[in-house]
Every structure is written in C-alpha cells, then in structure tokens.
Amino acid sequence: MKAGIIAAGLGERFKNAGITVPKPLLTAGGKTLVERAIHDVVAAGANEIALIVNAEYPEVERYVRERTWPVPVRLTVKTTPSSMESFFTLAPHLADSPFLLTTVDAVAAEGSLDALARAGLAAGPCGTLAVTRFVDDEKPLWVRLGADATILALGASAADSGWVTSGSYFFFPEVYAHVANARGRGLGALRQFLALLLEKGERLHGFPAGKSIDVDRPEDLAVAERFVKAHA
Q1: How far apart are CA 174 and CA 57, in angstroms?
Q2: Nearest 5°: phi and psi at 73?
Q3: For residue 223, what are the contacts with CB-CB under 8 A and spacing of at least 6?
Q4: In terms of Cα–Cα distance, which of 72, 80, 29, 50 is closest to 227?
Q5: Full DSSP string of 29-78
Q6: Using N-to-C axis directions, what is the helix angle for 33-43 and 58-65, rounded to 10°?
Q7: Pairing between strand 151-154 and 106-108?
Q8: 158-199: pLDDT as tens digits
Q9: pLDDT reading at 31 higher than 80
Q10: Across-strand partners of 214?
Q11: Secondary structure (3-state) at 194
Q12: Amino acid 187: pLDDT
C-alpha cells in the first residue's frame, strides 16, 4: 500500500497573521505537521509515500530531502491551484496501487489512518472517506451515509446528516480514470471531484474515523497541540 500527502497549500492565513514558518513545518505535539503526516501513514502500513509541496517555500523541500524517512518519499515540488490538482499531480506515483491520501493539516488520533486503510481495503473500489461528527471546518463537506456506510450524497443536500469529511481518504487506482473529465469540466476543488465520482456511479464509502483537527488558522495550532496530547 502507498500513501499520498498533500502539503502544497500556501498557508495564507498564517502568513497574514505574521507567522513566517510554512504550514508543513509548524509543530504539534513535538513534530512538524509534515513529519506527523509521514509518521501516521507509515504506521498505517504505507511502504512508499508520494508527497507534494509547493515551490514557494524551498525550506520545506530542503527539510524533506535532508531527513531520513522510514520508507521512500517521492517528493514533487510544484505550486498548484488547488488540492484537487495536487492530488492529480501525484498520479504517476499512486496510480498502480491502493493508497491512503491525507493532507498535511489534518491532525488525527493515533491509529485512525490504520483503521481507515483496513476499512478501505475491505470496502473495495472506488474509495472510502474518513468522516466525523466533529465539525471543525468553516466550509465542511457534508456526507450522507446509507445503512451500509455507502455514501449517498455530498454537499449541501447532506447538511442535515451530521457527518462531514475529515481530510483523509483511501482510494483504489480507478479513481484516476476521472481526471480528464474533471479537468474538462473545469472543476477546481477536491470536493467537486468527489461529487463527480458519485455522479459517475463510482462506489464511495464513509468510515467514522473519530475527531480530527484541521490546522487551517493560527488558533488551530493550540487546539491541535491539546488534541495530540489527549490522544497520544
């Protein structure tokens, strides 16, 4: 099993707040966010990692290249317009194996990605989304689940469901068959791509993965710090 980590965002809110450290190098629980993401996917069973960082912060590339990691890390340095395009950019490294996908700012409890991977493998193609009832995001992606945890709807039509995505996924390679369609439609967000998968009849499942913290604002760092300590 492989893993993809998206760490290519520009971290504008942190920059606007005067925080000059790039988001992937911010710390929670004594580890940088990128180190924590790598640790978590390796603990979940990943034997190879595809990591994308942007070209605006060379210190992040340098940090990754100068360290020794427990599994090979295939690093891509590219500034992309969205997390969806970052995900598409990782295709050459991920399209030959089932894989975990997470974002560098999604801080989850120890073991949650391992549980997601096991659930995703058992559920089969096309993918499984980690979901939670803890709503932390300013623009949550709502999810409606069926009796067998199949995802029936995403977005505003599922706003009364109580479930939202939490920033981690498990996909089979089939997911990349829809890249050209997404680009042809001019889609610009990963959530739009997920909706496209449903529209095309792909089977998606939800997995209740528990609480996670989206480190999207400066004040989230303290929340993530407390969360990591509580779930160590």
Answers
A1: 32
A2: -115, 110
A3: 213
A4: 29
A5: TTEEHHHHHHHHHHHTT-SEEEEEE-SS-HHHHHHHHTS--SS-EEEEE-
A6: 40
A7: unpaired
A8: 999 999 999 999 999 999 999 999 999 999 999 999 999 999
A9: yes
A10: 106
A11: helix
A12: 95
Helices (H) and strands (E) in the chain, counts: 9, 13
What letter represents residue 122's amino acid? Answer: A
Q: Residue 21 has which token pair?
A: 């450290």
- Helix pair angle (33-43, 112-123), 10° resolution: 50
Query: If you search the block for the tokens 């190879």, which residue do you land on?
Result: 48
Coil, helix or strand at residue 5: strand
What does the block give as tokens for 29? 């629980």
Residue 172: per-residue pLDDT: 98
pTM: 0.95
> Of 83, 100, 80, which is closest to residue 40 (Cα–Cα)?
100
Give the span between the Cα atoms of 103 and 51, in whole angstroms.
Answer: 10
User: What is residue 19's predicted lDDT score, i.e. its pLDDT?
Assistant: 87
d(CA 111, CA 114): 5
- The answer to whether 175 and 88 have CB atoms below 8 angstroms apart is no
113-138 pLDDT, tens digit each: 999 999 999 999 999 999 999 887 77
Given a cut of 80, whether residue 38 has pLDDT beyond it is: yes
